[in-house]
């Protein structure tokens, strides 16, 4: 036993030394994101703010997106209750994802790169690396929890209690540890780091969708969902720490399982079987487009399935939403007075959110070309009559195709489930969904353009596009709840796109964004055909 | 002879690193040119410049009289390339990758492919991620050798191959050369270069320091002589052209500049030679002289 983990502490300190910058950014950005909006919420809660917000968030669609509260009447709703209600689920989700990526990066990824082989040749236990990584991640999340708690207390706001603040922080920290343990297990089961990352994110996404369903229908079921153990602590209201104890026990079991799995497998292999392949290539592989489709196949299929599930999940809420309106006089008055149908308004928000998520796939497809380049997979192909333009345009074409299919899948599945769950009359029909989806196509193309631009001129920055996409996502997700200054919301590309079906189609912005995107792609192209390919660098 | 590759005054910097300072040499049709030099000397950089993967800062570089950067497409139709570290897609099989490379190059020969797979003893049904270093290298070599080209560029092609497989590679190179094709071969395996190359180009710190046929280069260096005489061999130590003289009793080992061989022999005969052995410089000796100097 001891031998397996021998000298893990050396690796542990080595990792802290190596990662300290990343850790600092991680803790600061996530910590401040989770805790820093207190003054902002405080302002929002003034006057009738709390009551209005309570009523708005009672909408099943809202519970679906941001989670439930333990408060049963608007009068009991406090600043603390509102803060936990709106922020805790998402902060936890981020903590989970970042920790999961970190764990896969330090375990499976290093194994794929052959670094583990080197490390194991020294006097280091076979499982020391996993132990060091998981301890590091636990430490980071612990610090994160402390930071969040301290910052929240420092605002000295009414109902933001000390107990609640630290429970809030601890819930987020525990979410990170949960994500880390899921990732550690997937790192053993899958046979590559991309498989481990993909499946971990898939599981987290699934947990999120399942909790959305159970939160709306019967919150008792959510108590069986590890992701829910974070927000079910209800800081500032119930202050129920018992869920964190479940989570800790759960994590411990998961870690033990992961170590057992790791101990029983060979380095570099996984638990999913390898099939023997073909000795000759299929005709369909024998071209650049065939090759690229093959290389992106797994990523594309997984994301497209995810988009379809996502559409269906959001679509299933429409029925509940109508029922809620039926029973809540106040909210119905609100919508009737503005002359907007709640279904239409919800559709425009959800559509934009789905489109942003759909953009991930095309960016990934374009970035793949650079990944292939640095991994030297293309060396021998560069020396054939295949031109760089051919490689470039095939990537862009495939990525655009993936974007269009993604949009169609997401909006179709949203439309079908929405239309079939709605019991009352609504102004929406199939065309309004598809139209809203296609209307956002230029925004997807814009991100393809950004990816093309970096591919041509600053290929190492390809990943930074996700940061801007994530930023746009947050602004859109919370834009309706938070009262942001105009210039802030304008900094997200998607605020320039007409929010159909609420807004009507705007040919102007549609074509302008389309044109800008095409220009970006062309500029990227001119860089890509000119620059040195990064080999041996 | 037709010049296939021609480089003159090629320079390339990566930021502050001057990888190529002045590279000029030619490769003719029907000729194998050995391209050797220490690690980091600029061999791969030169080759990547030739392939249009990176763009030179200055100088001229042509293949088939076409500019390697501007007309890379036309050039690439007629060349084959194997990098020193063949990196493959883990979830494709060796057979699939070979077929893909052949197809993308054009002018493939199916029978040749199958024959090479057999001779290199490659299992084409395995996923590439389970291949060893040598097997990955074989995939690259089979793909490159199964197509018709006029110029073959190999950057340490046999790294990781076992001696039997290296012999197969050498046979193939001899065959290509017979067919009048040009070959640029960068390698650290000097015996391989010695056996195959007609001409050797030595690069150091981004500069070409020596070019010539092996014979000509040998001429520039020293022969190692082992001698045993009846008389006192010590007198030979002071002769012109003798270096590194090392004596035990009547036995001596020393090296001699080739230009002085005759005068050495004249002295030696007077001492009564019992045993005499002259070993021409190996490429390794040549190489060491340049690497260390
Ligand atoms: N893309 C790059 N960016 C920065 N420096 C580079 C790049 N490619 C090569 N170099 C540098 O240029 C020099 C020449 O490298 P090159 O790979 O050509 O050497 P080499 O002769 O092939 O060596 P080896 O025998 O080890 O293969 C080295 O100092 C290397 O670090
Ligand atoms: Mg090299």
Automatic annotation (TrEMBL), chain A:
Keywords recorded for this protein, A-Z: Membrane, Transmembrane, Transmembrane helix
Spans through the membrane: 23-41, 87-107, 128-153, 165-187, 194-213, 243-261, 299-317, 350-370, 391-416, 436-458, 465-487, 507-528
Superkingdom field: Bacteria
Full protein name: ABC-2 type transport system permease protein
TrEMBL record, chain B:
GO MF terms, alphabetically ordered: ATP binding; ATP hydrolysis activity
Alphabetically ordered keywords of this record: ATP-binding, Nucleotide-binding, Transport
SMART domains: AAA
CDD domains, per database record: ABC_DR_subfamily_A (cd03230)
PROSITE patterns named in the record: ABC_TRANSPORTER_1, ABC_TRANSPORTER_2
Pfam families (UniProt xref): ABC_tran (PF00005), DrrA1-3_C (PF13732)
Recorded coiled-coil stretches: none
SUPFAM superfamilies: P-loop containing nucleoside triphosphate hydrolases (SSF52540)
Limits of the ABC transporter domain: 5-230
InterPro entries tied to this protein: AAA+_ATPase, ABC_transporter-like_ATP-bd, ABC_transporter-like_CS, ABC_transporter_ATP-binding, DrrA1/2-like_C, P-loop_NTPase
Family in the record: Belongs to the ABC transporter superfamily.
Protein name, UniProt field: ABC-2 type transport system ATP-binding protein
High-level lineage: Bacteria, Bacillati, Bacillota, Bacilli, Bacillales
